[in-house]
Every structure is written in C-alpha cells, then in structure tokens.
Amino acid sequence: MSARELVVLGTASQVPTRHRNHNGYLLRWDGQGILFDPGEGTQRQMLRAGVAAHDLNRICVTHFHGDHSLGLAGVIQRINLDQVPHPVVAHYPASGQRYFERLRYATAYRETVRLTEAPVAADGPLAVTDAYTLEAALLSHPVESYGYRLVEPDGRRILPERLAAHGIEGPDVGRLQREGVLRGVTLEEVSEVRRGQRVAFIMDTRLCDGVHTLADGADLLVIESTFLDEDVRLATDHGHLTAGQAAAVARDAGVRHLVLTHFSQRYTDPAEFERQARAAGFTGELTIAQDLVTVPVPKR
Asked: How far apart are CA 300 and CA 295, in angstroms?
C-alpha cells in the first residue's frame, strides 16, 4: 500500500508570520495527492516539503478568503508549467466561481493541462473512485465555506484462526480472496469487516451540523482552532473555533488523531492549544501543527 499521510504546508490564519505560512495541506493517498486550501506561498512550501506539481490530482478549496486561496494562481500555473500528465480536478464553493476564475487567469501563461472545475453547491458526495469517496458539508462562516471528508470503502480482514479451522493455507488464501468462495467456505466465514479509513478537513467555521457530520468517526481530523478558549466570543463573532471546541468535537466524534491548525498570530505559545484540547477531554493522538511536518493517517 502506498503512503497515506498529511503533509502540512502552512498553518497561519489571516496573515503569514515568521514561522507560519498561509494555509496549505496535501493529503497523499495511495499514489494520489489532494491539495487543500493553497494559501499564498504554497508553491514554495511544496518545494520545501518535497511535493511536486505531478503529485497533485485534486485541489479542494473550502472558501475564498485569501489565506485559503491566494496560492491558487501559482499552483495552477506550476501544474501547467510542469506539464502534469494527468487531469487535475478543482473543487470549491460554487458561490465563489468568479474568484476561482480570477485566480486561475490572474496572469498570462500557456495552458497545457486539463483542469476540470467541479464546484460544490450542496452537501454530499463530490467524487467516487475505487480508492475513496470525497464528500462535502456546509460550514458556518461569514462567506460560504465547505469542509471535506475522504472515505475509503470498507474491506475485509482475514482471520488466521478461522482459515486454520477450515484447513485453508498457502495459495488457497489468495484464491479465496479473489473468488469469494473455496470448497464451500465463503470469504465472510474467515474474515471480518475492516472499516475504511476516514480523513476529515474542516477549516474556518463556527460550531454547526457540518462540523459534526464531517468529523464523525474520522481516523484523522484536520481542523481549525484559530482562538484559545478565553477568546470564544471573538471566535463566534468571526466564524471560527477555539482549541477546546475543536477538541470537544473530536472527542464526541471518536476521532483517533486530531490535528489542530490555523492559529491566530496573537498567540505565542503553541503548547497552550494542546493544554486546552486535553482539558476538553480529548484523549486520542494529538498534533499541534507546524509547517512542513508530516502526519500519517492511522492504520486500521
């Protein structure tokens, strides 16, 4: 199986800082790459992280505030400059069509790659492939914003003790997996359901139904925590979450690995986000995101 991992390209909110670039997140999934929210400077961060334009198959934009989309122009032009040999699909809120078009054609360049626009206008599946289903859900922000979730189809886990009980071994195991039945023994009799992995990506939003829908059962949840809990009123007024709110969502959703990101420049101690997330009762694996770190998707 190819790598399934999150490459964090940027973690700042609103403005970049000396230590944090504008947003940018690449999800590697079995040889495909999905780029979320390419903010200003994403093309250079890709270079620093070892991410090539050829790695990109999809681009998903949650909303058209600059820290989540100003890097689109450079990324799209780089895809064309490098003559990426496969089509690339772009998802973004349909209400922001004019912003996407302005960014796509911000300057003159030669188009060499088929870039398919697939705007998001409602909750539900956006794309269904053999490897995953990509879903979207509406969030709550001053401009229309959607979160995304990647859901792998369920599979089956072979149980060696059941194989042994039926005397199945060696090449016959592979045959049973391919054909579904061997000498009257079905695959279901010697295996159990292995639920597919789920990765959720939630950026700028207040608490809302879409947040809980996307986070439900996620193995990896990447979620904004712009503010600390003492500034919850600011968070609500500006359409954001606090560290405690994001962690409580993860706690209630059964998230296995929580990645907090999109931090306001007003805070200088990242450890405080971890303290407040733990105080909210989240006990799973926790990452306070830094630029250029890699986070593996938990295996099942």
From this structure: 15
